[in-house]
Each structure stands twice: as C-alpha cells, then as structure tokens.
Inverse folding.
C-alpha cells in the first residue's frame, strides 16, 4: 500500500513537472512567434549603429537623446528577449565594414546624422527618401512622390513619421538588416517600440515579407507625449542590386 501510494505521488509529481515544462515551452514559443517574423537573425552577433549627434568629430561629441534611447531599447531587447549572444552598440562614424559587415545590423536614425543610412540608401535604394530642411524633414515615396510632412511648431515636433525596413543585409549573405529611420528622433523612438515588446506583435501581424519590407508610421506629440503609432503605408520591395 505504501509503495503504491509513493508510486502514485511520484507519477503525479512527474506529470505536474512535464505539464509545467510544456506550458513554459508553449508560452515562450507564443511570445517569440511575433519576434521571429520580424527578427530573422541567424548570426551570433548584432551591431546596433546609432546616429552621430551634435558635435560629431569634436572633442566632446554628443548623441541625440531619442536615437540613443531607441538604440538602447533595441539592444536590450535583442540581448534579454531574443538572447542574441553578442550585441554591440556603436556610432555610425565608428562603423567598419572590415569588422562589422559580417554581423546582423540595426541602423538607428536617418540621413540627417547616420552615415551608414546614407551608404545603405545609395546601395539598395529604400522606397522612401528624406527631404531635409533646417528645422524639419519630410518623407517622399519614390514611386509616386507622395509626401509625408513632419510638423514642427515653435521648435517642437508635433507630428513625426518614421520608416521601419526589414531585409537581408547587402553586406553579407545570411545576415539581417533592420533600419529605423525617423524624420526626427520622436519618429525613430516610436519605430523602436514596434520592433520590441510589446509593440512587435502589431508589426508582426502585417506579415513582413521578403526580400524587403518597409512600414511607415505616424505619431503625434501632445504635451510632450507621443500618441499610439499609426501605420500609414507598407511596401514589399526588392532592393537594388549593385
């Protein structure tokens, strides 16, 4: 009787442990499902390349606060959420093809202060281009000239746009490239929230497709707070070949 009771208790414990482990695996797969549709990483090292801020090239360079926050959020998500073994964050001016091109790449920031963005645009020709002005930047769809105008009032951004582009890296076969480029830093920061938890589920629901996929988002800034990002365009496209 005692041995039968012990066997029953052991069987129940084993069933509980197996069930708990199964539930944990299921929950993890469910949580990572959206991420895997966005981050198609296969490499062991990712380099996050953020914009150079004001004073680049001087003894006291600084960073744009929004771009720096976006870079930090993405790096933490890759490291802690997707468990990428190695994640490095560098400035665009520090990018070295000899050292970095074999890695998966995340480019944070647009042409105003990110030299790597300019190099990539020349190489692959993103579907949107930026028109830069002293106090703002606009997005222009290359196919038909559709204009998305950043709005700035009394030196403060009140409406911003950003492009999120997902594609294979043009520098190395089998490596991925994610580009988060806003008209301003508000847009770039909003883009980073759609490639990390919890916003990544919204982006993954669009079913990003190969070989390249770009989403354009719009936000408003009211009393210093950004509204929920709105999708205003999405394009599946083929990068230009060299």
């Amino acid at each position: 009787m005692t041995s039968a009771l012990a066997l029953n208790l052991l069987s129940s414990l084993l069933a509980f442990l197996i069930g708990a482990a199964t539930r944990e695996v299921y929950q993890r797969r469910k949580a990572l499902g959206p991420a895997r549709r966005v981050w198609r990483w296969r490499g062991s090292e990712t380099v996050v390349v953020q914009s150079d801020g004001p004073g680049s090239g001087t003894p006291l360079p600084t960073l744009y606060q929004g771009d720096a926050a976006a870079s930090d959020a993405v790096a933490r998500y890759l490291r802690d959420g997707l468990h990428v073994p190695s994640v490095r964050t560098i400035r665009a001016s520090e990018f070295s093809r000899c050292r970095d091109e074999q890695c998966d790449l995340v480019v944070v920031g647009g042409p105003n202060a990110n030299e790597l963005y300019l190099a990539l645009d020349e190489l692959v020709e993103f579907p949107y281009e930026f028109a830069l002005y002293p106090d703002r930047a606009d997005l222009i769809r290359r196919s038909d000239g559709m204009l998305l105008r950043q709005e700035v009032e009394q030196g403060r951004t009140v409406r911003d746009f950003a492009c999120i582009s997902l594609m294979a890296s043009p520098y190395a076969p089998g490596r991925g490239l994610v580009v988060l480029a806003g008209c301003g830093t508000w847009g770039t920061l909003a883009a980073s929230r759609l490639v990390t938890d919890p916003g990544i589920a919204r982006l993954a629901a669009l079913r990003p497709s190969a070989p390249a996929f770009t989403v354009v988002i719009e936000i408003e800034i009211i009393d210093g707070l950004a509204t929920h990002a709105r999708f205003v365009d999405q394009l599946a496209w083929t990068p230009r070949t060299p």
